[in-house]
What does this fold into?
Amino acid sequence: MQLFQFLLLLLVLLFSFLSQATMTNNPSQSFRASFPPGTPPPNPIEISSRYDKTTGQQIILWRDIQRVFENAKYVRNGSLVVSFLADENFQEILPERISHHPGVILEVVVADHAQRNESAVPLGADDAAEDAKECPSMPDLESLSIADIDPRQGVVDDTPAEIAHPTEEVKGSTTTARGEENLKANLFEAVLKMRVYMQDPQTNFLEGGPLRALSTLAYSSSRDFQRMAATMFAGKAVQGGGYVGPDVLKPIVGCLLRSEFTDVHEPALYALAKITYEDERNVLLAVGLGALERLARLVQSPDVDVHWIASSCIAQITVYDDNRLKAARSGAIVPLMRLAKSSDPRAQKNAVWALANLTGSDESMQELVKAGGMPVLVRLLSSSNSVVQECCTIALKNLTAESVNRNILLQTAPGLVRTLVGLLDSIEKIQTKAACVLANMARDETYRLEIARLRALPPLLRMSRSDSELQILSSVACLTILADYPSNDSFIVQSGFLELLIALLTKKSEKVQHITMMALHALIQREENRKAIFKAGLVERICNVALDVCAESQAGMAVCINVLAEDDGLRPKLLQLGVLDVLLRLSCSPHEEVKLMSMGAIRNLHLDIQDSERFIQVWSAPTDGLQGFYTRLLQSGDRQYEFLALFTLCELLRGGNIRLRQLIASSTTISTAIKKLIQKCTIFLFLQSQGQIDEIDETNDITGRNLMMLTMAKFIVDMLDL
It folds into this structure.
């Protein structure tokens, strides 16, 4: 037994010696905080440099400097600002770093935290015009580095990891009397094997024997061995490296994150963060092993490095919808809210990101609202950190989609609209999401008035003229809802918005075309806008682009023509511009909605015909012209289509044009179809009078419709002398 303890102690000392040897090869860099002129300089502080394999030189990481000098802004050597190292394309190397300056005391310039503008965690673009709930995209975990974790046991490198194979789970971090001797023997064997494995740089520690040895150290009761295991897991795990399996995650989640030794938590969290990065299989496995409950506790750690990595893990896990409610019920919401209000910008960003994710599904959103999360998000809209602002706007976009949440905000956040209007002058990502929040809020009349009163319309109009698709989508969506109020409507129309919308119809983006048609459709419903819309050139633009846009936009264009054709003064002008040509083509569309909307517009163009010449010009073309249009409807067997054909033919004949009458009479397909309809309607009415046919639906007067169709058909026959 004494020999065993001696050998074990010898190995621990050996590992400690090796790690110390790696640390002493790196020279230190002297720093001191900036100081006002005329005051004595502060004492310098030494920070160890690191060897950068990429540049082949000693460097100091920017985050190492920030840990020592709170609110560090930049570093200078005398009057010269020390730049971050960059690659051959002049892109800053991440994580940010500066070169080592031997024998020089570098000065760190610090600024008030409230004035800092942290670099943004990259967030993915989203469809800003849609109401679908969104979540911020994942941050780049290169901002985490295993070099930040003091390797007290063992030497860590960045050997790529592979897929793990099953190992036997060992219970807890304490031993039992029954297995104490076996555990000591296993631990001794694991230490010996680790010494061999670490000498081979090609060793994969996430599978087979190396993983079993590493897991044995993790489940030991030794602080040093647990720390060594956590550090090895963190160093060997590969960000986005694929599925690792339960045998890698069990010792991390089941033991190391639950360790009584607090300095084990940071490297274990870092390992979890790398393993769960953009891999849903690893995320689901970690959640199943109880990771969320443990993370909810670690978010409350007084150690800043622990709680910010823990909040990052929660944010990554809650990207996936299935995990949001679990996270909300794990007890994480209140600690995340507390962390979101902290002075640590890293922790604040991750906490707000996680809270924003929780608004991405209904149930977790409700839990967040019940916990009092909305006031926190509203308050942080005024943050100086653009990433925090963006996450808050995403969260509020999701929250304000629900009327109950808008009512709560109306009572509890009186300055919210003013803050959001101010954000319309921010960077693009924040502008677009702020506009989406305002669009949601504008659904309520009270907010609609306040948004206009606080002069949101000018910046929204400016955004709608941008070249950015996201800005166009979000601003046009918001302006469309705001235009539903008369005073806003007139301002929007007089500000050149109509001309802008019409110009946007030429955009190749289907999303832009669709949102533009929605806006025009909303504006055209007001009778006083129709002449202005016509004058702005909408009809000419529709004639030019209607055949080249998506089906949804085609249907919207047909609806606009349909509404304009209701105006007696505009109807002749529409015919002169050639809309019949376009509508006849659209009536042959395979999309039912496009077909119906086009037929409706054609029907309105037949009302009170004063000039029949345009109808004569399109009798046989384009496609098969009006003749084919009537024939298809009469032969369709659909009562709605048959009725439409008879109605439009009657209107055409009432115009009194002899040439049109001759064209209709010469069409055998039309005359034959009309005679068949007369026969069908007559038989139906006879059978119905004999009680052999009942009304299928009391709300649908089938008998009355058949009578009308029979009357119109006989009128056509009489007019044509058939």
Remarks:
- Residues 619-722 form one domain.
- Confidence is low (pLDDT under 50) at residues 9-24, 112-178.
- Residues 632 and 641 are 9 Å apart (CA to CA).
